[in-house]
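Appendix C reproduces, verbatim, an entry submitted by the partner laboratory led by Prof. M.T., so that reviewers can inspect both the input and the predicted structure.
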Amino acid sequence: MPEVDKKGDPGPTLVKNDVTGGRLYRFANLLEVQLDISSGAIQNPRFTRESGMYRGPSYMGLDSAPVGMIGRKIIPAGNNAVTFKQIVGCRTESPEKIGRAVGGAVGVGAGALGGAKVGAGIGTIGGLPGVAVGGVIGTVVGGYVGYVAGREVAELATAYPPIWTELELTVNADGSTSQRVISHSLFPSMTFYALRAVADSSASNTLFFREVFYDGVPNLEKWKKKGWGLANQIHRSNATEGNPWGMEDPGPVLGVGKMSTHCPSGYECQK
């Protein structure tokens, strides 16, 4: 489920390492499972250790942050079929981190200058040590204020909602499979790939084939406004407003947004 807004459609096929090796994309949801069907009946269905979320660097090379918890669910249908569901999400923190860096630097500079001036005034009585003390105090206080101001300005200007995807894979005892994207965030663009049948997905040359491409660019502005808040918990489908964890727009409040870490309805969760 790669984010492909800048590079365009990544092509008709890819291999697993394109995602797990961080070669191509900033965000990927890899749903990978194991089970035994050698007896003609499905036994021991489970998610692999590599099934989960993969994140590459976000804007300006800064890391993104997971949102909430990864949700997983195994739904057996007797011995003849089993369905796996997985939902993951993350959010770029680039605006906040850039705001902290810029605000902190400006604050330190302004604080040091202000502190030196105050210290100079004190220094007329106490001598040069007053300049040094004033400078140090000004630097610390100014740096802290700059950090907070930079964070606040960045959040107000460019805080971005989570991006997320919800996948489903059904495996039948005869080796056939079906898979789909249940729902996903309004933005970014998304390409969905799948194996055509039960196979060793860990092999480096195993091809995953493109099944769905969603162009999220037309929904960019809508996502900025409607990507916050709790998404529909029961009947989600396709591009969906909100997010399954209920993360709210931080607005004028400092921080990375009010995040509810509840498990999305119908899932078992882990961090």
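The longest helix spans residues 94-126. Additional entries are available on request from the coordinating office.
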